[in-house]
């Protein structure tokens, strides 16, 4: 018997995706460490049609031609090593599908190298964590279009479904899929940080207990319908099985990361596009990680005194902040996608991206429906902030943020992402920015020249 698809890498994500695919298609799996494969077959596989292969040759020969091989392995060097180890066994037109969080430039390189050998390559972003992998993730494929056509059915069957269809769509050539997944993660970092800042304000200024905060997040989420808000509400309610205390209070406040947020910011800088809210999400994780230093610093300063606020009023401002800054995080992400699409010729369809993010993925939320409408009205939008769907709401909510930001500052609570979102909005809607002074300074100390409002040309002044 020949199997329709093969999967390499039986981490939890790989296992769950294999089980998901096996509901509709025959699949063969391989993992370098044999015991993992054995555990998987013994403990997780029931009646599904899954073949366990215990050698690469066995694995490859179990697959129907042209072979379709999905890699669910750690991004970076391991992907290259596995591809190299596969090469001797592959034949022309076989398809390798990288389902990990690979850097988009690695994907471009691999695609080029493999195409020269006649092997087809798809860089596929998969979002949804363990649960999504098993029950239906959001899938973001890019690469050779005709190769996608051959695996489309398998990916569609595995993906999350909404009434608009499966949460998968061919996004574009080369690394388009991995680029879009990277920006998905950038937005994820932004929204996670926005929620963390609101949590910080709730506990430090309003002095709410986790249970109460859980109620607040759950109530807001009736409107927002955001997965990240939903899990935040649940996290607040969770007791530690060991001590019975609230688990959130026992978790060390040092955030880790595996790179996709940082890469989003690096790419934004390379492409000359600002994503300050997402950037704030990355920076906040970096600052959190120097815990010892923060503890030492804290001892050198008096504690800020808590601002006195009207609880009802401030809760409404926090809810506005969550909406406002989340919209801005998406707006920054889509703006960067547009820049990247133009630079790298991805030819991205932003409406379709918002559609496949509507379910299965980590940043799914009620905001993705109006985002799709905005792109349906204008495919080539420069920014979401001026659209019918968001303009008025952003304007109203921006006005509600000033008291929140000032009381946070009085209380010594950093709201970096929320503040960045507000400043991004205020900058984008400023006809006049002070960059004339920057130009004057550059010309003053370095003769870097400037342009004038009243005359065409390039000018330099002897300033002293
Ligand atoms: C997803 C997630 C996932 C990502 C984790 C961890 O869409 O399912 O984005 O792919 O790897 O969220 O990311 P960090 O370790 O960088 O926080």
From TrEMBL:
Family: Belongs to the 6-phosphogluconate dehydrogenase family.
The keyword NADP is annotated on this UniProt entry: yes
The protein's name: 6-phosphogluconate dehydrogenase, decarboxylating
Task performed by this protein: Catalyzes the oxidative decarboxylation of 6-phosphogluconate to ribulose 5-phosphate and CO(2), with concomitant reduction of NADP to NADPH.
Sequence positions that bind substrate: 101, 127-129, 184-185, 189, 258, 285, 442, 448
Pfam families named among the record's database cross-references: 6PGD, NAD_binding_2
Residues where NADP(+) binds: 9-14, 31-33, 73-75, 101
Matching PANTHER family: 6-PHOSPHOGLUCONATE DEHYDROGENASE
Species: Halanaerobium saccharolyticum subsp. saccharolyticum DSM 6643
Annotated catalysed reactions: 6-phospho-D-gluconate + NADP(+) = D-ribulose 5-phosphate + CO2 + NADPH
Pathway: Carbohydrate degradation; pentose phosphate pathway; D-ribulose 5-phosphate from D-glucose 6-phosphate (oxidative stage): step 3/3
Domain of life: Bacteria
Domain 6-phosphogluconate dehydrogenase C-terminal: 177-464
Active site (record annotation): 181, 188
Entry's Gene Ontology BP terms: D-gluconate metabolic process; pentose-phosphate shunt
Complex formation: Homodimer.
Keyword Repressor found: no
EC number: 1.1.1.44
